[in-house]
Every structure is written in structure tokens, then in C-alpha cells.
Amino acid sequence: MSMRIESVCVIGSGAIGSLCAGHLAQLADVSVLTRRENQAAALTEQGLRVSGKTERHVPIRASHRAADLPAADLVIVACKVTQLREAIAAFEGRAPDATVLTLQNGMGAEEVVGEHGSWPIVSGVTFMSGVRHSDVHVEYELDTATWMGPYHGTGTSYEVAAAIGELFVAGGLRAEVFADLRPAQWSKLLFNTAVNCVAAVTDLPHVGVFARRERDTDLGHLLSDLVAEGKAVAEAAGVELYEDPWEMNVRAVSVGQTGNEAYAHVPSMLADVRAGQATEVDFIAGSLVREADRHGVPVPLTRALYRLVKARDRTYDD
Ligand SMILES: NC(=O)C1=CN([C@@H]2O[C@H](COP(=O)(O)OP(=O)(O)OC[C@H]3O[C@@H](n4cnc5c(N)ncnc54)[C@H](OP(=O)(O)O)[C@@H]3O)[C@@H](O)[C@H]2O)C=CC1
Ligand SMILES: CC(C)(CO)C(=O)C(=O)O
Q: What keywords appear on the UniProt entry (predicted)?
């Protein structure tokens, strides 16, 4: 069944949520659920600015209380997966006719959403990147696609995912829609396990050294070895990857320039480490390690990296 999308509610106005809200506001009635009252007030007063790959300045209806926001045809959950349970719980019993789009890296966001409502779910995984300059200003860095597809656990149709993809494209974002998202989701899972976790432990933004393999000591060797472990897990799980995660890594460090500045995206996991907040590692490297164990595939490098990021997480969790 096709879907008319006239209203959108974005949960979480961070980097990705602001990029979605800023682009879709020209096409639909967009509202934003924030965590903090002061961010909602700033968005309401000043609107939302997008700079970089596109330039936008749009008025936005925002609140930190779900009850203040109108029902929506589409709810985009754009907080971190670690924040998802609390964020979506505020929506329980609300927007009964909405479709929910998840955009979290890693695996498992759909299950968390499904615990709080019977909404049809479209799974998404995004390769665009943004950096938040303030509560009302996001820079659009990497203008690559968001991949999306129906989450089969909720009987969502392909047409519903296609309607969301069309909305993204009409709003100036890139999107690709799949009948089965798994091959794309796994490509991104392997990419994020390698790139985000290495960034989190080295404190390096995603720059050229992640793809350099000239000298034996170059970091690119570690990234390609991690990707090779991930590919063995994907094969054992019967997943044929949509894109080669190593090529995704090479492309991201070479095409991501905004204006004349060199691309130096701080991966979302490094942003969490720098902010002293829990990372999404359990849903990214953790998911891959659990899959590896299920299929009896050895992943010593991925496991070591997972433990290193967990050790960092525990410095503020325990
Ligand atoms: N950043 C990027 O470039 C990319 C991110 N991703 C993925 O996208 C997802 C979102 O990441 P990103 O945009 O970086 O995250 P951010 O940390 O930038 O933004 C998350 C936002 O969610 C808000 N939030 C937290 N809890 C709640 C709540 N209960 N109700 C409403 N809002 C809430 C936060 O509020 P507050 O500001 O108050 O903390 C914050 O504004 C992650 O899964 C990430 O892995 C994927 C590709 C690229
Ligand atoms: C932008 C990108 C693709 C780079 O690592 C990402 O997924 C993230 O920051 O989490």
C-alpha cells in the first residue's frame, strides 16, 4: 500500500535528526521532539539552519514533550540507539497511524521500537554525515545515501519504504530503497565496526590514514583485516554484502569534503567518547561478535576492538 506523508515527527535533533528535519521541512509539516527544553525553545525561536552540502534555514515546531506535538504520518527516530528506549517510550500510545523509520547504526533498533508500539517499521541506515555546530545549526558533510527497506517483523510493505525514500530525495537528501535491507545493513555494520571503533580508541577523525596501506605500520591494514573478519561472518550468516565496506571506507575519506576543508568527520562513536557518554558499541561491534559466535567464526581483532571500546565506555558507565 502506498503512503501519503504530510507530517513528520523527528525524535532527536542531533546531527542526523537535524539533517532530516532541515531537508524535509520544505515538503511536510515537520515537528521535532527534543530531550532538552532549551533546545526546543531555541529551535522554535530561531528555526533550524543547515549549511555545507546544502543551505537551508527553516522554521521548526519543537518540544521536549511528545504530548505537545501533533500526530504524524512518519516518525523518524534519530537519537542514538542507547537513548532509543527512553525516547520511543514517550511515544507509546501516540501516533497510532504513523510509520516509524529507524536510522540507528548497528543492529537492534527495530526491536526496541517494537517493544513500545505496533507501528509499521521501515529500517534505515544512513551514510550521510553531519556535525552539530549548535542546537539550531547542523553542517551537512557527507551527502551520501540513506538506505532503507521494510522491516519484515512488522509486515511493512515495500511501497511504504519507497514513499519515504521519495520524500527524502524530493527534500534534497539521497536515498536508496531495498526490498531486503539486510545486505546493505550488513555492509554498514562492517564499515561502522571497523571505522567507528578504531576512531573511538585512537581519537582520530575519519581521515585518509584509515585507508592507507603503504607501510607495514599503516592503520589501513587493521581496517582491512577487520573488514575481512566481518566478511567471513556475513558469509557464514548467508548475507551477500551490498557494498564492500573497505571500498566504503576508501570512498568516505576521499569524497567527503565540505567546501575547501579536508574531510575530517568525527564518527558518531568518537563523538560519544569525547562527550563522555555511552557509545553504541554493543549494537555495532557487539552485534557482529555475537553473530560470529553464533556461527563459530573466529573474530579476534573485532573482539579485541569491542573490548577496548567497552573499557572506555566503562570509565563513565560503572
Ligand atoms: N552523526 C553522524 O554523522 C552519523 C550518525 N549515524 C547514526 O545516527 C544515529 C543518530 O546519531 P547522531 O545524529 O550522530 O546523534 P546525536 O548525538 O548528534 O543526536 C542525538 C539526539 O537525540 C537526542 N535525544 C536523546 N534522548 C532523547 C529523548 N529521550 N527524546 C528526544 N531526543 C533525544 C539528543 O539530545 P541532546 O542533544 O539533548 O543530547 C540529541 O540531540 C546514531 O545511531 C548514529 O550511529 C549514522 C551515520 C552518520
Ligand atoms: C558518518 C559515518 C558513515 C562515518 O563513520 C557514520 O556512520 C558515523 O559517523 O557513525
A: NADP, Oxidoreductase, Pantothenate biosynthesis
Ligand 1 geometric centre to CA of 17 (Å): 7
Which fold is adopted by the domain 7-179? Rossmann fold (3.40.50)
C-alpha 32 to ligand 1 mean position (Å): 12
* Dist CA 75 CA 127 (whole Å): 19
d(CA 49, ligand 2 centre) in Å: 21
Residues of the chain with CATH 1.10.1040.10: 182-315
Rg (CA), the chain: 19
Residue 172 CA: distances (Å) to CA of 27, 54, 112, 260:
10, 8, 29, 21
Determine how many CB atoms are found less than 10 A away from the CB of residue 108: 17
Closest ligand 1 atom to residue 129 Cα is 3
- Give nearest CA residue, ligand 2 atom 6: 267
Q: Is the CB of 79 under 6 A from ligand 1?
A: yes
* CA dist 133 → 60, 138, 256 (Å): 17, 6, 18
The residue among 3, 46, 48, 42 whose CA lies nearest residue 21 is 48
User: For 182-315, which CATH superfamily applies?
Assistant: N-(1-d-carboxylethyl)-l-norvaline Dehydrogenase; domain 2 (1.10.1040.10)
Rounded to the nearest angstrom, the distance between the alpha carbon of 67 and the centre of ligand 2 is 32
Q: What is the pLDDT of residues 70-106, one digit of tens each?
A: 989 999 999 999 999 999 999 888 888 899 999 999 9
Q: What is the CA(95)–ligand 2 centre distance, in A? A: 30
Instruction: Report the complex ipTM.
Output: 0.98
CATH 3.40.50.720 domain residues, the chain = 7-179
Ligand 2, atom 9: closest residue by C-alpha:
267
Whether ligand 2 lies within 6 angstroms of the CB of 284 is answered as no
Rounded CA-CA distance 110/155 in Å is 13
